[in-house]
Amino acid sequence: MSRSADEVNKLTESTYKTVMDQFNPGLRNLVNLGKNYEKSVAAMILAGKLYFDAMSKIGENAAVSPVSRELGVVLTDISEVHRKVHLELEENFKRFHREIISELERKTDMDVKYMTATFKRYQIEHKMKQDFLERSQSDLKKLRRKSQGKNANKYETKESECLETLTSRQMDMQLFIADGCKEALLEEKRRFCFLVDKHCMFSYQYASYHEKARDMLTAKLNSWQDRCKDASDMPDSILSMIDGLRTPVTITPLPSPSPSRHSMNMSAPPAPPLKAQTSPLANMFTQENNTATVTSATKSSIGHVSSEDNNLARSVSVATGLNNIVKRMRVRTIFPHTAGSNNTLLSFEEGDVIALLIPDERDGWMYGELEKNGKRGWFPSSYCRALSEPLVNNNSVSAAPYRSRSVVNLHHQDTETDEATMVLPPADYSDVPQRNAIKNNASTVATNSNHKHSPTPSAASSSSSSDPHTAVQPNGTSKSQPAYLAGGNPFATVRLRPTVTNDRSAPAI
To answer: Where is this region: Disordered (predicted)?
Structure first.
C-alpha cells in the first residue's frame, strides 16, 4: 500500500502521540492497580494464614480424642499444605512486584521524557527538511521563469543544478519520514512487547505456582478422603472397650454403709444405761390416745398420789403416744437435746425431724437419724412427737375449754404472759366412764394440793420409770442429781404452784 509522505508523517506523529498520551498514562494506572492487587493478595494470604492456623489448632485439639485423632492429624496436614501454597503465592507476588510493577513504574517515568524528546526532535528535523525542500522548489520556479526570456541558454545550467538539489532534498525528506515512521512504530511496539513479555513471565510463574500447588494438594488428597469416608467407623480399641461395657458384670452385694431408715434389723449402739428423761409436756402433743394408754396412766398416777401425799401428778407414762410414732416412723422434736460427751446420744434443736431407725422404745430411748445432717444416736422419746401430729389439738372430745393455771415461780411474777402463751394439753381419754372417774380424782387431788407442790417433770418422769420407793422431797424434787446437769430435762428445776384444772387427768382413787 503506497502512501504519500504527508500521510506517513501524520502516522508517525500519531504514533508518538499515542505512546505519550495513552500508553504511558495507561502504564501509570496499571502500576497503581498492580499495587492494589498486591495489597489485596497480601491481605488474602494473611487471612488464609489465620484461617488455616485456626484449623490447625482445631486439629491439635482433636488429637486427644480416641476416635477423632486421625481426623485431627488430617486437619493439621491440610492446614500445613495450604500454608505452603500461600507461601508460594506470596513468593510469586514478590516476583510480580519486583519484575513487573517496579519495572513498569521505572520505565514509565523514563519513557515519558524519552518519547517527548524523540517526538520533538523528529518534528524539528522534519520542519527543517521541509523548509529546505520548499526553498529548492522556490529557486527552481524562479530559474524556469527566467529561462523563458531572450537568454534561455544562460539559465539551463543553473536550472539543472537546482533540479538536482530539489530531487536530492525531496528524496532525503522521504527517507527521513520513512525512518521516523519506522522508529515511531518500533518504539510503540517495543513498549507493548515489554509489557506483554513481563506479563507472560508472570503468567508462567503463576502457572508454575498453580502446578506446584496442585501437586501439593493432590499428593495426600486421596488419603484425606479415605479418613473421612465413613463417619460411623470407630477404632477397634474403642469398639472393644464399648463391647466390654455392654457385657453384664456380676457384682457381689455389699452391706450398704448407710442402711435404710426403715430397716428393722439394723444394728445400733446399745441404749444408754439410764432411763430417758421425760419431757415436761410429754402429753401436750399427743393427738390420738387409746383407752389402754389412759388406763395405764391412771394406774401410775394413783401410785404416785399415795406415795407422795396426794400431790397432783401431771405426767403420764413415757410410752404415751409412742404407738403413733412407731406407725409414722418419723418424728419432730419439741425440745432441744444436747448429747454432751456421750457420743451415742443424738443432739438436736427444737423442730428438727428424726427418722426412726429402730421403732422399738428401750427404757424411754429411741434410736434414729437426724435428717438435716445425717447423724445417728439415741434420744429421749418424750422429746419428740409424730411428724404428722399438729402442735395443738383444738378438736378434743370435750367441748369445755381447757386452760392451765400453772405458772413458773422463779422468785419473780410473770403470770399473765405465761398464762397467755401456755399451750393447752389435749384430752387423753376417749370414753365417758373413764372421763367421770378421772374428773372425780381431779377434784380430790385439787383439794389435797392446796398445801402441796406438784412434782417436777423430772420427778414425775423418774417416778413413772424408776423404783417407786425413791425418796421425794417436800418440794417435789428427787434427791438424786438433777437431770438438767446430766444433759437431760431442762425443766427439772421448775416449781409449779398449786392449781385447779379441769383436764380430768388426776388418777381415780
So the answer is: 444-509
